[in-house]
Design brief:
The chain is α/β, with parallel strands linked by helices and 328 residues long. It is globular and about 65 Å long.
């Protein structure tokens, strides 16, 4: 089973000409695997996640955004029998996504404080999620909700069941959000910066939970800007800049041998204990000023926009020459 998005393009209309936010993006998430999309703020990661479930135009004025591309969910091998879903994102309506949201694909957001209803107990919200996807009585929905709380590692689930969101910690709320996302028994989970607002210790717990869910067959699309998370909690990585994938492949391969100057820039900006006292990190300004990270692969140049296609440089390792200047 896999979830794939082909040729995703997102434009927004403003006072001037339409602006392209995401251009020709194609990704595939496989069951029991994690694909991490990594990039700085504004690269297009979150709007990509929202567009997959039709949430971008649902949450905003439909006239402002235009989304095109194809979403497919089904067996990776076309010859394999099994349920399949295919949507043309340009023409799909909310009713078309209803068959997918929660039951085939769920999403969790980076800020559980705003995602949960503050005037309802978490138990009531969980029951609503269960009954939205499963035809069960209230008592059975309560039992399944408590099971979900236990599955995501909530201590004393019966006690927490009657709590309001403001009575719980950030880590507990994020686990509850994951429980709600699992209520429809989806095959894929989109995690949009799920640990951004959490401290390091709680982050590790949430990421371990996602790893455990993946071992049960769940495919995960992880949106993040944290390369340390990518290195240890994903199978594949897609590096995104200005609405385009500039490098993709197995996470270990890309991090160990980055081929695009922007990927190298991201990696070089991660603090390490080996940095000499008094030294400073390489910044994008350094690279743009001509201080190349590696002259063999060229310089990162946002003005260089040609050669957007991905080229295979090694087994299962693809790189775009977009934003590359001075390639030798």
């Amino acid at each position: 089973m896999s979830l794939s998005v082909s040729d995703l393009t997102i434009t927004v209309r403003g006072d001037g000409p339409d602006r392209t936010l995401v251009s020709g993006l194609s990704i595939t998430v496989e069951e029991s695997r994690t694909l991490a999309i990594v990039g700085e703020s504004g690269s297009g990661k979150s709007i990509t996640a929202l567009s997959i479930l039709g949430l971008l135009t649902s949450w905003h004025a439909a006239s402002a955004f235009t989304v095109s591309g194809t979403l497919r969910i089904g067996p990776a091998d076309p010859a394999t029998a099994g349920p399949r879903h295919e949507l043309d994102l340009a023409s799909a309506r909310d009713t078309d996504f209803d068959a997918l949201r929660g039951s085939a694909v769920s999403i969790i957001f980076q800020d559980p404080w705003t995602a949960l209803n503050p005037i309802r107990t978490v138990g009531r919200q969980l029951i609503e999620s269960v009954r939205a996807h499963q035809q069960v009585a209230a008592a059975e929905a309560r039992s399944r909700s408590l099971d979900l709380l236990e599955r995501v590692g909530i201590h004393r689930p019966v006690e927490r069941f009657g709590s309001y969101p403001h009575q719980l910690s950030g880590g507990q709320l994020q686990r509850i959000m994951i429980a709600m996302a699992l209520a429809g028994r989806p095959r894929f989970l989109i995690a949009d910066e799920p640990t951004t607002a959490l401290d390091v210790t709680v982050q590790r717990g949430i990421l371990r939970l996602l790893d455990e869910l993946r071992s049960d067959g769940l495919g995960v699309l992880l949106i993040t800007h944290d390369l340390s998370v990518v290195a240890t909690h994903s199978d594949r990585i897609a590096v995104m800049y200005d609405g385009s994938i500039v490098e993709s492949g197995r996470s270990r391969s890309v991090i160990a041998d980055p081929r695009h100057p922007y990927t190298r820039l991201l990696i070089s900006s991660v603090p390490t204990l080996s940095v000499a006292p008094g030294s400073r990190l390489i910044t994008k300004a350094d690279v743009l000023a001509g201080r190349e990270l590696d002259p063999r692969i060229g310089r990162f140049d946002p003005e260089q926009r040609e050669h957007a296609e991905l080229v295979r440089v090694a087994d299962d390792h693809l790189v775009s020459r977009r934003f590359v200047a001075g390639l030798r």
